[in-house]
């Protein structure tokens, strides 16, 4: 006898191929606009759903989870980071949470390198000059940037993405340093040629480039606070492709304005897409609209991961990418 299809609510428009596959497999409610669902619409959708597929723009907090219907049993996040989901409350309510790890590692690490290169070699500025009518031709002292090779890179958070950044940066001739909750095992650390710093303060004070690659959790919120940002060398730059909340954005803006920090490349911001206007006005920053994982291939693979997690759950097994260890 065919089993009843799971009712799946997807909160954002996903690539066509992912949506079609979802529609084949499940009784799915899809979105056909690119605007996020309102909180009320989300609450209503969670009433009758077995599975919710949210993204980073949906704050699935305790109050919203309290309104979920009794059928909601899986939140299959379309994304790796789950800091927008109250996973503790979900767990208490018997709701599983899965994510899409691994498939956005290379793309996000590539974007980290792109930001580093763009800031140090002044690429957007050069492009503006080349596109303007003001460029009068090559000059020996024009557009001088900083050499990548030999620079000391301090990676904050040496998970999958941090390690992928380390491999790339090493190929560019950078010296690799890292701080992590736990030191990597020797067999992982050695091939990366990475030096571990137990003290984040000491690492920050000695680096030419800081790359933020840790998730946003209560213990990483404002890890790069005003005091730590002040430890950075005045010629150092910081890049962030992880979560804006890890850096105190107001403090960073002040220090970039005063020249205490030379530059920044940011793909993520403390208040989502509401970027501090003072930060937007600076010339020593490169700001991107959270596009670190935005590749055609990555978005399809994220969709495949979501599908596998839901399908496995529908078949009565443990979804492979549960984020809370020990669930189920
Ligand atoms: C995704 C991300 O695009 O997966 C993540 O954690 O930060 C992004 O790059 C986004 O989260 C999709 O929900």
Automatic annotation (TrEMBL):
PROSITE patterns in alphabetical order: D_2_HYDROXYACID_DH_1, D_2_HYDROXYACID_DH_3
Where's the D-isomer specific 2-hydroxyacid dehydrogenase catalytic domain?
8-323
- Oxidoreductase as a keyword of this entry, yes or no, is yes
Record key words, sorted = NAD, Oxidoreductase
Give any Gene Ontology cellular component: cytosol
Q: Output one GO MF annotation.
A: hydroxypyruvate reductase [NAD(P)H] activity
Domain (D-isomer specific 2-hydroxyacid dehydrogenase NAD-binding): residue spans on this chain:
113-292
Q: Which domain of life is it from?
A: Bacteria
Database matches in Pfam families:
2-Hacid_dh (PF00389), 2-Hacid_dh_C (PF02826)
Q: Which Gene3D superfamilies match?
A: NAD(P)-binding Rossmann-like Domain
Entry-linked PANTHER family: 2-HYDROXYACID DEHYDROGENASE-RELATED (PTHR10996), GLYOXYLATE_HYDROXYPYRUVATE REDUCTASE B (PTHR10996:SF283)
Its family remark reads:
Belongs to the D-isomer specific 2-hydroxyacid dehydrogenase family.
List the protein's name. Glyoxylate reductase
Kindly list the organism's lineage: Bacteria, Pseudomonadati, Pseudomonadota, Alphaproteobacteria, Rhodobacterales
